[in-house]
Amino acid sequence: MEVARLSIGGMHCSACSSTIEKNLLKLESIKNVKINVVSGKAKISHENSINTQEIINLINSYGFSALVDNSKELEIKYINDLKKRFFVAVPCFLVIFILHMSGWHSSMSAFLQLLFASFVQFYCAYPFYKASLSVFKTKSADMNVLIALGTSVAYFYSLYLFFYDFGDGYYFEGSSSIICFVLFGEYIKSKAKKNANDELGLLTQILPQKARILKDNNQTFIDISDIKKGDKCLVIGGEKIPLDGVILSGEAEVSSTHINGEEMPRNLKVGDLVVAGSVVYHGEIMVESTKDSSEFFVYEMLDLLELSHVKKPKIGILVDKIASIFVPLVLLISVVAFMFWVSIGYSPIFALSIAACILVVSCPCALGLAVPLAIVCASIRAKRDDILIKTPEIYEKTKDIKYIAFDKTGTLTRGEIMVKDFFILESSCDQLEILKIAKAMQENNPHPIAKAILNFTNNYESCTLDKKEYFVAKGIKASVRGEEYYFGALDWVCSQVNCEFSGARNNAVAFGNSSKIIAVFYLSDSIRDEAYDVVKWLKRENITPVILSGDNEESVRNVAKELKIDEFYFNLTPAKKVEKIIELNKSGGVCFVGDGINDALALKEASFGISFVGATELAKEVGDVLLLKNSLKGIVSVFKISKQTLKNIQQNLFFAYIYNIVLIPVAFGILYPFGILLTPTLAGMAMAFSSISVVSNALRILRFNL
After folding, report:
1. 27 — phi, psi (to 5°)?
2. Which value, to the nearest 10 degrees, does the dihedral of the CA atoms of residues 293, 448, 490, 559 take?
3. What pLDDT is attached to residue 591?
4. In 590-679, which residue ranges form alpha helices assigned H by DSSP?
5. What is the per-residue burial (b if ≥16 Cβ within 10 Å, else e) of 597-619?
6. Nearest to 493 by CA among 519, 520, 517, 468
7. Model confidence over 477-503: pLDDT tens digits?
8. Cβ pair 50, 22 in contact under 8 A
């Protein structure tokens, strides 16, 4: 079994990806197809009886474009092509619109409209025509068919009027405007898709470029892409670990915050496992790679992220059904109408006018505006409250959310270790002198605790140390004017000064001299002020708050207790967080709120993910919602505006369909016996009024009071 990884261009919606999946799976040699319609990435498992190029040829024959996913050539080419066609379509449409509205109804005006409309119809809309032709091969309709059909009806009926009637009821401006709108939307979407794909590459930037490999007792630096299972790598303090492996020798303090979200490094020894991208603060270790470079956890995470959109949202399934039923049905009705009126003795020209009315009044302009325009207005409204909603499905998904799962560090808490309390145990000791020595001992130390101490002593001068010595995962020993001092883990300092400590020990670090403990610093990661109100609001809305954290039990339990969150989990790897989200999903939708690289998988696996502007670059990109203020209050606003937007979308769909439901029978001629017949001009006016109704209703969102 082989796997083909491809980039596919020209997909507009989930119906497009369904077309590809359904037709590829008809072949016995293709066993599994996963397509991310957002990123354009595809992962296709196949037997040796078919090769990658043959699969690419098949996808091309369906009306899409495909390339092996080892370059950005296809993506860049597609975006540039859209841009070129859009900037041709816009001036052509403006000329047509001015001529149409000017009242100059001469043959020259009609000829100029035809000329410019032809440019738009056959050059600018060519990608949609090409893709829509695949319906004859795939036997399934998608948005390309809707676009091509809606514009072709207006154009070709106008063409008929130009040659046989020389009237002024042309629809050239209608077909051109639709094409301009679709090209612009597709261009914006493709640009956003490319930016998202580029940002996924940030995940690999946490890895060093080179690895110090030992071969035959000699050190050599190689690219991490060349690392093989069994290679031995030396990593010293201050460096990143370049591979997934097991420690063969040495001891070090290692921070894996990109995996577990935990700020505090851990002391690792022989036999412990390490993950590529982890940082060695102090110490020196020899690590043996347990995988080839392509199988490192970071690359596995990237693979999962790229293919995380294979599940279709409800709104996508609805659009698929509409596209597959609505288009053939309208075509059938128009053909039946033509045949009916000819069969009862009316002229083919009259019957063609009836058929054209049906197609024009059924043109999916309002349907195309109903959802995206409401989303655009909602996104503008959200932006006013410093909320960036990047995934349209959010507006629908919020109503099904039963759980909100929070990462702890940097989400419910501020993500920075700070000194919460400071106590001097020896009254005879001078506080100023203690803080000066403590500051001097922690200077030039990258450890998170050292940073907390330096922030706490920021307003004090440091003293001069005679000497300073680090002890991995324990603390620092220093000499000042001939006297020795110790600063570090409470148990270690107690052992060095040979004394007991009877006070609170949780999150405590000690400062002492050669005979006693002089002072104790208590550390904490403080809870965000707004977290309390947000948790209360969620409970009032019958949404259960949950903590999913990679941090230790004590730290997570304390935060949960403080915020009165009953359900919490600790020591979770990114994969374990995903498992918990899947488990919670069985009882209802799950929203995940996180800010770290280690939260990326959970942000994508949840019904939708929320991140912060201060989060890691990867978390900001993969999250569906980005809060532009580092405040949890934005979560409440997301749910409020989503509820209003979903209601607005439902109203828009009503306006979009009610005209079709009422006017298609009228266009068919059901009222003709009473002297009422819908002309193409009136059909165009009805279509426009349908769009105006949708636009007016969508604009109401901008006035919504959060």
Report:
1. -85, 130
2. -90
3. 94
4. 600-605, 617-622, 633-668
5. bbbbbbbbbbbbbbbbeebbebb
6. 517
7. 999 988 899 999 898 999 888 888 888
8. no
Q: How far apart are CA 142 and CA 148, in angstroms?
A: 10
Are the beta carbons of 213 and 311 closer than 8 angstroms? no
> Which amino acid makes up residue 337?
A
CB contact at 8 A, 284 and 236 = yes
Amino acid at 561: K
Dump pLDDT digits (tens) for 595-638.
877 788 888 889 889 988 767 666 777 788 888 777 889 999 99
Range 408-417 average pLDDT: 80
β-pair type (218-223, 65-68): unpaired
Amino acid at position 32, single letter: N
Q: Is the pLDDT of residue 166 over 60?
A: no
How confident is the model at residue 310, as a pLDDT? 47
- What lies within 8 Å, CB to CB, of 58 at 6+ separation is 23, 24, 27
Question: What is the DSSP annotation of 129-169?
Answer: HHHHTTHHHH----HHHHHHHHHHHHHHHHHHHHHHT--S-
pLDDT at 300: 67
Domains of the chain: 2-70 (3.30.70.100), 208-293 (2.70.150.10), 313-384+641-706 (no CATH), 387-413+527-628 (3.40.50.1000), 426-515 (3.40.1110.10)
Neighbours of 346 (CB within 10 A): 16
Question: pLDDT tens across 638-693, in order?
Answer: 999 999 988 888 888 787 777 778 888 988 889 888 888 876 556 656 665 666 67
Between the alpha carbon of residue 637 and those of residues 384, 537, 563, the distances in Å are: 11, 11, 20
Q: Shortest CA distance to 608 belongs to which of 633, 631, 583, 638?
A: 638
**Separation of alpha carbons 632 and 394, rounded Å:** 17
Q: 3-class secondary structure for 312-371? A: CCHHHHHHHHHHHHHHHHHHHHHHHHHHHHHHCCCCHHHHHHHHHHHHHHCCCHHHHHHH
Query: What is the b/e burial string over 487-526, where b = at least 16 CB atoms within 10 angstroms of the residue's CB?
Result: bbbbebbbebbeeebeeeeebbbbbbbeeebbbbbbbbbe
C-alpha to C-alpha distance for 556 and 248, rounded to whole angstroms:
32
Residue whose structure tokens are 């007792």: 217
If residue 213 lies in a helix (H) or strand (E), which one and from where to where?
Answer: strand 210-215
Taking the CA atoms of residue 218, residue 219, residue 225 and residue 228 in that order, the dihedral angle to the nearest 10 degrees is 40
Please, are residues 563 and 531 in contact by the beta-carbon 8 Å criterion?
yes
DSSP string, 676-706: ----HHHHHHHHHHHHHHHHHHHHGGGG---
pLDDT of residue 512: 92
Residue 309 pLDDT > 50, yes or no?
no
- Give the global pTM: 0.56
- Of 548, 483, 546, 471, give the one whose Cα is nearest residue 512: 483
The answer to whether 312 and 14 are in contact (CB under 8 A) is yes
Length of the chain equals: 706
Q: What is the phi/psi pair of residue 311, to 5°?
A: -75, 135
